[in-house]
Amino acid sequence: MKLLVLIAVVAAAAAQQTPRTSVPHREQFRVIYEWRTIDFEWESQTDRETYLNTSRYIPQNVLISGINFYGDNIFLTLPRMLDGVPATLAYIPAYQNDTTAPKLKPFPSWSDNNIGNCDALQFVQNVEIDRNGIMWILDNGRVGTLTQNPSTKCPPSIVLIDLKSGENKIERIPLSQDTVNPSTTYLNDLVVDNRDGDYAYITDNSAVDPGIIVFRLSDKKSWKLRDKKSMTSVPEAALFRLNGTTVNLPVNIDGIALGPQFLTEDENVDRTVYFCPLASFHLYAINASVLRNESLATKNDGALRPYIVDLGTKASQTDGMKMDSTGVLFFGLIGSSTIAEWNTTVDFSAGQRTIARDPNYIQWIDRFTFDDRGNVYVIINRLYNFVKNQVSVEEVNYRILRSYTGLKSYIHSEDLKPPSPPQNAAATKTIAASMLVFALALLFA
């Protein structure tokens, strides 16, 4: 396995931060898989040739974007931004002893990835797997988003698959047209909050109407909250320069992460949602309880602003990010080919730490995930070449890196409960008064 440059944590830097109770042994990031182009486990060689001959499979048009882990498998998303992507969700084995390019197996099946069939997956950008083994899939329903003629095949939807049961049946839940526009919505990333009926907080980086979509599973209801200042791109951060290539990507709200539970001053349980536009140097935060307030979705721009905190700036732009169960945020700094982390118990401006930097292997950090053995994974996909149609099939374009941290995903963070309510004071006073009256009656009897 290839070893990447790891920036050691010096004692002086560690002393400036509030350490966790125990700091697990860290490993350097290593390449566990890499591909020049993506190929699949076809049902037959004839099928592969047929797909190639009819341009339903164009190898250089298949991009790995999202990643997640369950059981012994790594799930990968393959958004249909260009033509020739035969499957939009697939998986590979998680543990293998070499870095050869494994062929991807469509998930749940080939037929469940058929374009134009709204019982199947159309355009999957990202997925999350919750603590109950439910896979939450963002399906935009629109394909060819980087072509001249994008085509809306099906409504933008949340798709659920119960991995724990092993049946892998698809449940598709179209999002309300009051929430999404099938022609402009771009469901980008999500986090899942397994409390109070199960919620998903979803970034919609629509070019015309960006925002955070809240989806509640218990009644399958959704709403969208907007804030122009924190959720839209800024011109000074829209230009990306990597390895001699320059690309302009004025992309709105993109990455999202969910912090551990905490008790508020009025002793309610809450969580912090972190987010940022791709074309921005800022990281923002808002409480999940605010996003759950449906009434804010009906108010004009600015209604959400009093609840949003600008945590400060980063050295470069960030695509995907992920929180662990203790409150450590992992994120990429694209322009400097860097993987960074931040312990959210300390100030953001002082607490950011570089944990890996390598311009040869870390070229566009996309999404992160954790397995159940204490490893963190990251997708590297050279997106800047992909969007400019400059993918070379003679070079490695996609990598999965892995590092042992001893930590787990935010999905497994500790559940908190509000303190037990005190005994009803009014009732106590009433009982005491009644006993006093009874005692006086006995005294004067």
UniProtKB/TrEMBL annotation:
Q: Which residues form the signal peptide?
A: 1-15
List cellular component terms (GO): extracellular region
Q: Where in the cell is it found?
A: Secreted
**InterPro entries linked to this entry:** 6-blade_b-propeller_TolB-like, MRJP/yellow-related
Gene3D superfamilies from the entry?
A: TolB, C-terminal domain
The UniProt keywords, alphabetically, are: Secreted, Signal
Q: Which superkingdom does the taxonomy of this entry point to?
A: Eukaryota
Claim: Secreted is one of the keywords in the record: yes
Q: What is the protein's major site of localization?
A: secreted
Q: What family is reported?
A: Belongs to the major royal jelly protein family.
Annotated PANTHER family: PROTEIN YELLOW-LIKE PROTEIN, PROTEIN YELLOW-RELATED
Protein name from the UniProt record:
Protein yellow-like
| Source organism (scientific name) | Vanessa tameamea
